[in-house]
UniProtKB/TrEMBL annotation:
Residues of the Phospholipase D N-terminal domain: 42-131
Pfam families: PhoD, PhoD_N
PhoD-like phosphatase metallophosphatase domain segment(s): 141-480
Lineage per the UniProt record: Bacteria, Pseudomonadati, Bacteroidota, Cytophagia, Cytophagales
Coiled-coil portions: none
Domain of life: Bacteria
Species this protein is from: Ekhidna lutea
SUPFAM superfamilies, alphabetized: Metallo-dependent phosphatases
The protein's name: Alkaline phosphatase D
Length: 511
């Protein structure tokens, strides 16, 4: 009897220590993977650099639907990992879509680091990152927005990967939510996944997975820390606190969709997680980078210039709390440059089309708050404020002033209180997708020469690419780099434009 019992226990033990069988992990983006990168097909990423901390990120994709995967991470001072500064193990699971995010601390300021991951017997590619400097001689930020997989190749990300930068500031529209053909060039074979507008948790996860399997975006993330903020398309077009233009009642609860979009953004983006998305990153005495959330705190977008709520003081882009936080950051900043990571255009702009003049989705649709910010900057006064802006798929340079421009001298810049540099899109459509270059050039000249936009110094509504913001003791310079094409893979840059302001003067200059 005893003998039998022993056998039974032994067989039970044997049965229970057998590796559990799991179903294969089936993903609709699997055909886009580079098998040589298994199981770290999505590469590596880093973000939100502080003086002694940086986020590192990866995603592990097991062949089977494992309930958990252990991932070892390492960060080193050299790319051969002879001098490992820190290492650890974390566990990921399907609850966070097998993504891995570590906020590595105890690092030195202004240092370059290398990092990698190990799991399931394999190693990831090596990523490069950098902590913020306390006393930088200069700072170089890549500034980007609006990448739409279907509109073309991510050549701009590929070229950006090769730049020597402190960080990349991503101002949003990192993904787009549309169904195939909803907003894109369907001739290029870059149809969005899944094959529908994204609404559910799995939809958003698949869309991020597709974008993050793009080799150019993988290269950009692997080479630079990113500082991301969402715009509207990470949720749905023209989103605000309680709704979105592209969310209909038959698509379910907006609140639920917003929460899903937020969850997946935090899973896939190398961002430090917090209840409040707006935040400040400091780069010593050179720059404070103030990242604003201009979507999910805002009240609804006005229908027209005749909307009776337009001048209502309850109309808000930032919400009371964020507005107070922002204006306080401007007032207390000791840094030379106050850089505002801004999604939609802050400066007044008349687009000059017969059927479209003022964009009520931008700060012009929130005029009371727009003025309150101007008043804070002018009354303190706060020097050297640089708005960097995404959203419009167009490059811009403004000397920011208030209407009716009666205090502004467009020759000397006197009366302007800040500058605004807008980056064009990585590849989302602008005027060039609808009209020839010559037609668009005529319009660019018309609106920059127009007396209704005396403070608009330059624009390019034709091209795609990225901007580099270079900050030194003496000046803040925007350099726009425009790609030759987005219709085939190519890292060729066809044109470069520089515009800058000298410290203490709001007067834009160019060469
Ligand atoms: Fe966009």
């Amino acid at each position: 009897m005893k003998y039998l019992l022993t056998i039974t226990l032994a067989s039970l033990l044997y049965c229970c220590t057998q590796p559990e069988k799991h179903a294969p992990l089936v993903e609709d983006t699997a055909h886009l993977r580079d098998s040589s990168m298994a199981p770290f097909y999505h590469g590596v990423a880093s973000g939100d650099p502080l003086y002694s901390q940086v986020i590192i990120w990866t995603r592990v994709t097991p062949e089977d639907s494992l309930p958990e995967v252990d991932v070892v991470w390492e960060i080193a001072a050299d790319d051969s990992f002879q001098e490992i500064i820190k290492t650890g193990t974390v566990t990921t699971d399907p609850g966070r879509d097998y993504t891995v995010k570590i906020d590595v601390d105890g690092l030195s300021e202004g240092q370059k680091y290398f990092y990698r991951f190990h799991a399931l017997g394999k190693s990831s590619m090596i990523g490069r990152t950098k902590t913020a400097s306390i006393k930088p001689q200069n700072l170089m930020f890549g500034v980007v927005s609006c990448s739409n997989y279907e509109w073309g190749y991510f050549n701009s990300y590929g070229a950006l990967a090769q730049e020597n930068l402190d960080a990349v500031i991503h101002l949003g529209d990192y993904i787009y939510e549309y169904a195939p053909g909803g907003y894109g060039d369907t001739t290029l074979g870059r149809s969005p996944i899944p094959n529908k507008e994204i609404i559910t948790l799995q939809d958003y996860r698949s869309r991020y997975s597709q974008y993050r399997l793009d080799k150019d975006l993988i290269a950009a993330h692997a080479n630079h820390p990113f500082i991301n903020i969402w715009d509207d398309h990470e949720i749905a077009n023209n989103s605000y606190k309680d709704g979105a233009q592209n969310h209909q009642p038959d698509e379910g609860s907006y609140e639920e969709r917003k929460n899903i979009a937020r969850q997946v953004f935090y899973e896939w983006i190398p961002i430090r997680e917090s209840d409040q998305h707006y935040r400040k990153l400091q780069f010593g005495d050179m720059a404070d980078l103030i990242m604003l959330d201009e979507r999910l705190e805002r009240t609804f977008i006005a229908d027209s210039l005749g909307d009776p709520t337009l001048m209502d003081s309850s109309r808000t882009m930032l919400g009371k709390e964020q507005l107070l936080w922002f204006t306080t950051q401007l007032k207390v900043s000791q840094a030379k440059w106050k850089v505002v990571g801004n999604q939609v255009i802050y400066s007044y702009l008349n687009w000059g089309h017969e059927d479209f003049t003022i964009n009520l989705d931008s700060w012009d649709g929130y005029p009371i708050e727009q003025q309150q910010i101007a008043d804070v900057i002018k009354s303190k006064p706060v020097e050297n404020v640089v708005f960097i802006t995404g959203d419009t798929h167009t490059a811009w340079a403004f000397e920011s002033t208030n209407k009716p421009f009666d205090e502004y001298n467009q020759e000397t810049g006197e009366g302007a209180f800040a500058v605004e540099f807008g980056t064009t899109s990585i590849n989302s459509a602008n005027s060039n997708e609808s009209y020839s270059d010559s037609v668009v050039l005529v319009h660019e000249n018309r609106i920059t020469d127009s007396p209704v936009n005396p403070h608009l110094k330059w624009t390019n509504m034709r091209d795609h690419g990225y901007m580099i913001l270079t900050l030194t003791e003496d000046r803040a310079m925007a350099t726009w780099k425009f790609m030759k094409t987005i219709e085939e893979p190519s890292l060729e840059i066809k044109e470069v434009k520089n515009i800058w302001m000298n410290s203490g003067e709001v007067k834009l200059q160019s060469n």
